[in-house]
Amino acid sequence: MSPTTPMSPTDPTVLTAERSESDQEAVAAALHAHGLGDGDRLVLSLPGSADYVSVVLAASRAGIVPVPLDPRLTDHERRSILADIEPSLVVRETEQLAELLAGRPSISTSLAPWPRCRPMHFTSGTTGRPKGVWSGLLDAADARSLVLEERDLWGFDAADLDLVVSPVYHSAPLRFAAGTLLAGGAIAVLERFDPAALVEAVEHLRPSTMFCVPAHLQRLFAHLDETGSTLDASSFRLVAHAGAPCPEPVRRRAHDLFGLDTVWEFYGSTEGQITACPAPTWVRHPGTVGPARPGRVATVDADGQLWCAVPSWGRFTYWRDEEKTAAAWRETPDGPAFTVGDLGRVEDGLVHLDSRRSDLIITGGVNVYPAEVEAALEDVPGVQEIAVFSRPDEHWGQRVCAAFVGDVSEDDLQRRARERLAPPKRPKTYERIDALPRTATGKVRRSEL
Predict the structure, then answer these.
(1) Are 411 and 377 in contact (CB under 8 A)?
(2) Same domain, 252 and 388
(3) 74-123 per-position pLDDT tens digit
(4) How far apart are CA 289 and CA 277, in angstroms?
(5) Domain for residue 253, yes or no?
(6) What pTM was estimated for this model as a whole?
(7) Domain that holds residue 404
(8) What is the pLDDT of residues 379-390, one digit of tens each?
(9) Inter-helix orientation angle 17-33/94-102, to 10°
(10) CATH number of the domain to which 24 belongs
(11) Residue 327 contacts by C-beta under 8 Å, 6 or more apart in sequence?
């Protein structure tokens, strides 16, 4: 296969590790020419592509911290993040990406054999303010261990072709794509998820690995049913899903289509990965999200909150937020452990989730925190109170809804949501009510909404 191979006019281009390595050297030279160095932040706020992955790898191997942002963020959302992290360079246009890939031949640079940092992804919180998950720069031993941990778990190697069907600026698809390239394999990135395009790509490219969210599987199966088409999934050795609870019928159909020994589920967060569950384990223990990943220990405290002890390369802080960092970590007999507030239990070494983070809405694999949405809408003239909650959605798992008290039109609320919130965070329904239901201590009873 040549370094970049379009397999059909509509298929994504295949990027090989050989071509990516060359591109990474050019990008690292370009970044150094821009004056970026160790620990500087490089913001990427544009749609994902195979080239995007090469830029992330180039930056992280040069000690420059890539900061992937959802390009759908509004200016309001983006401004607060940029002011917080003070990036040295912001890339928002594909032309800028192409300029980096063109490199600076006169600048000599060297790439570390392994990424020297984790990308700095942002996660919202119950306060509504997005938090950057910061690993800092890793020493050589931890940098190597970070890559090999993923490689050993998922079996990435030079024979792999990873089909990226999720937005590559999200942490899981980016990890799978980067891990495949670092192992000598190749990647192909769909511009956007479309079940027909996925079927065609599988037919022509014959990928071996794929990460997806349950909503992707639901849309794929609906497409197969509606069109009467089939998918030859025999090329896959690994299909991993995560990001939201997977309905049992969808899960079992995935087992049938891809093969029981091919499908895995994992549980984690932007902050860190906790479990990995092969399908046969789930079949024997329905409801589990699997055992803790090798080298990690999952426990629960007296309140049922899940904690995970991680090796040194799995540690993080919240950017410029010592209070939230301290609340997320504690010392355990197994070493430092973190929590994201999820509730669950550990039985016979297997983790079971009882509840994701308080109030968290997961829509199409995207985490949405009511507090962030409420903060964006509460100052609309006429709003006295507003509460955001979820309802089940057959396509996306959950949909974002809002109830409000006050004299304000739905049009005004929708207009403000479009100004301040990325599409997944915008409420799909607004309901005027006389008063928000509250507990005796004043907390909103979202379950009643």
Answers:
(1) no
(2) no
(3) 998 899 999 999 999 999 999 999 999 997 666 667 899 999 999 999 98
(4) 6
(5) yes
(6) 0.84
(7) 361-432
(8) 899 998 899 999
(9) 100
(10) 3.40.50.12780
(11) none
